[in-house]
Each structure stands twice: as structure tokens, then as C-alpha cells.
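Case study 2.
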Amino acid sequence: MNWYYTTLNVGAILISFIFLRYTIYRMRFFLHTYQQVGYKNNEFWQWMKEHWEEKVLPPSLSMSMIILFILVIGGNWVLEYLTYTSLTLIVFVLILFWFGSVKNYTSEKVKKPLVFTPRVYRLSVPFVILTSLFPLYSSYMAFTGFMPFTEEVVPAYFAGVLNFDLTILFAGWAFGIAFIPFLILFSGLFTRPVETYIQNGFKKQARKKLASLPDLKVIAITGSYGKTSTKFMIRDLLKERFSVCSTPGSYNTPMGICKVINNDLQASHQILILEMGARYEGNIQELCDIAKPDISVVTNVGVAHLETFGSQDIIAQEKGTLVDNLGSGDVAVLNADDPRVSKMGSDRSEIKRIMVGLRNGEIRANDIQYNTSGMTFNVTLGDETEAFQTKLLGAHNAQNLLLAVGVGHHFGLRLKTMAIAARKIEPVEHRLELKQNGELTIIDDAFNSNPVGAKNAVEILSQFNSGKRIIVTPGMVELGDIEEDENFKFGQAIGQANLDLVILVGGQRAKPIQEGIRTEDSASLNVRVVNSLFEANDLIRKVAQAGDVILYENDLPDVYNES
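Prediction:
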């Protein structure tokens, strides 16, 4: 029977490789998730709590802990009914069944894959070391019967007819796997001083470079929504006359801003345009400490990131920090239609305020019309009125363009010059971006939906008549206590829009939207619920026909999937 025991011993080695494979996939998954939440421990912990049974402690690990508890506490009792080899075979089968598949930690389609940046490599050093300790330590004891380094005999070691201790081997890998998400948290804390030191170096370099360019004008933009769109509009208007440097995409964090200043800003640039984002109190001041603005632009105060701020008043206070950092003679360009924004800097006579809006302000827009080609409207500044035509969609984009006009006016650009430049402005990616996919028209509004923008996008979709009007949306996220109420209102807007097909992503998150739809006497509206964006796209491929218009309203990261 030596061949039989040899087979079991070889099986133990194979089981170790199964555990190793499962560990690697689980480590990669949680490292990817940690990167997606911006390496923030509080947000990663919140994600863990929301996905506890699905990802953090799935049934396979829970059952493993129960089996181990039985083996440790009642091992002798179990062996009265089972032989050690039969128990080993049973555990082997359970391990193959529970840990043989890594499907729970893999995704065939990833919108934003794990990027192995220098920070990830630094984080991975303690993460890999800590994760490896328990499995390697236990495996050594299980196969040798000795404690590592000291070579003392393991107490109560029992290899029986096998050349390993089943309980120690099983426990080492199972507990090592279970601790992985907690070890990424610890590794983040452990490497934080190093990251802080490195970041402070980049900040110091950026401040030094800005100080060497005294004639450079810094334009900073903040707001709950529309920052990136407004930034690119300002850039496109000003570049008609000035040499402009601006942050790309949604670069609105300290390191994103530092990267542009240190690498892209040249001595020949006359204007630097920065987008400043905030998720927590103090974020705007941190950015202003890197680059003090000469012109501050505030788009609005909404409910984005209400979950982390707590109230709109606190959000307004944080956004207002951008105006507070202006010095004497500096300029604030403000949304006059937003009551919280319009108050910013009102008590400071030493700064200049330029107020713009669709209803209020010294620069206004009216007669807005939009279709598949874009949008037209009239801009009035004093006694002058000029017709603007743009590829952009939505009244909120008209508002953002007015802010850009306000900045351009401060720099001496004529209204007619800015109207010509506005024709060339391209929509920001994933923000009411018109696209053609074969014979289908796509309205891509998949970047960070908010109550105002979502309702506006639905209204735009309702005005198309070339074919079926289809919306794909998971609703709105990160709105804290008001999320359910706002998604209910969003559902009401969908119900009023008389659409042809509504595809909701996520059964639980979709419930308030469905309830809102039902209140609008739209029982005949075709509503379908899917678990992921990928399922939604599969459904569209089955039902969409030439001439149909599809609105993608908001998107969710890869860490979200209801199944």
C-alpha cells in the first residue's frame, strides 16, 4: 500500500499548489480593489463591509473555519469514526471543491485594470511578505514536524501514516487566505510614511517651479459637477490667444496636479488651468497650498460625495475655500444661478467677482436648443449678444460654457472670438458625448452621474425621434443618506420621459428607480434589470436596431456587480 500513501503525500503537495493559486488570485483582486478606491483605508474598509460575504469571507472560507474548529477541538472524537486517511481524503475533496475555482476573484472584462505603478510595487513588498508568512510557516511545520528556525518538535504533531499533519497544513493556508484583505489595509498603513515623504517631495518641486514663473496665471476650477468640462472649455477659448497648459482628464488630486506642473508646464506657458477635486474637508486647501489660484472658478454646489461630507453646507464651505485663497485683485468667476456659489466672496471687496448664469448674472444665456448635432444658444454680455453653436449637449453645458466665457472676458477676449472657438469644442469623454456605433446613436454620459445631470440627460434622450430611445443606468452612487430618494426622483424623470426601453444595472440599487417609474403611470414602460454593465450590453445587442438612440447614464467600477 506504499503507492497509496505516496499518492496521498503527493496530493498534499498538489493541494498546497491549489491554495497557492487561490491566494495569488485573491491577493491580486484585493490589491486591484485597493487601487480603485485610491489607496484609502477608510473607503476600502467600507467596501469590505459591503462585500463581506461575497468577497471578504465567502462561504468556502467560512466552512473551512468550521471544519478546522472541528478538527482542532474534536479531532480525537472524529478519528473514532473515521480513519486518518479517510479524513484526509474527505478534506482533500472539500479543498478541491472550495478552492479549486478562482472565478470569484477574476473578471474577463475589466474597464480599468490593475496598474503596477511604483506605489503598487512599494505596497506589494510588505503585502507579499505578510501574506506569505502564515502559509509558509505552517507548511514547514506540517511537512517536517518541526518549528522553523528553532527546530523544536511541534506539540501534538500527528502525521500518522502520512508525511504531513493535515490540520496544520489546512489551517496555515486557510487562515493566510482569510487575512489577505486585512493585510492590504495594514500594508497601506505601513507604507503611508514612505508615500507621504515621496508626495511631499513632488509638492515641494511643484511649488518651486511655480515660484520660478511669476508671470504665470493660475486658473483653478472646482465644483460638485462639471469641473472637467469647464476646464476644457476654458482651455479651448483661451488657447485662441494664449499659450495654455492644463491638466488632462480628471487630474484633480495633489499628485495629479504635481505631475502636470513638474512634467508638462513650460516657461513659455502663460496660463495654467487646474481642476481641484475634493472628497473630504481640507482637500481644496491642500491643492491651493501647491498652486495658489489667481482666478477661481466654481461651477456649483451639489450632492456629489455627500456621503463623505455630510451636508451641502459643508460642501459649499469646502468649495468656497478656492475663493478664500484669492489675493487682492484676483478674480472669482461664479455660477450666479447657484445660491450657495453666488454668496462666495461676496464680503470681499478686494477681489473681482464675475457672475454668470442661465437666469442671473452679468453674462447670461437664453434660447437653448439642442439635437443630434449639438446645441445652440445666445450669450448676452452687457449690450452685446452673440449666437453660440457647439457640439455639446445639455443646459448644464451651456452653464459651464458661460463660466468659460467669463474667464475669457476677464482676459480680454471678444464675445465673437469666443463664439468661433466654441464651435471647435469637443465633448469631454463620457459626459453627454455623442457617438456613432454603426447605425446606433450613443449618448455616453457614463462618468459620475448626479441628480441634475441625470435628469437633464434623460430629457435630452426624450427629444430624439429617429428610433427607440433606450437608457442604461445603475442610478446614482455615493450620495449617502439621500441616495435612495434621489434615485427615486431619477425614476420619476425616466417615467415622465416616455422612453422605449429602460435597462437598470443592479437589482438592489434599481429598486428606488423602479418605484419612481411606477409613480408616473408608466406601467407599460419596458423595464429590464441586469446584474452588470456587460449583461446590459449583451441585451442591447439583441434588441437594438438601426436608428435607435442609447443613453449610458453613469457607470460603476469593476468592484460593483450584483449577482
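The chain is about 50% helix and 15% strand.
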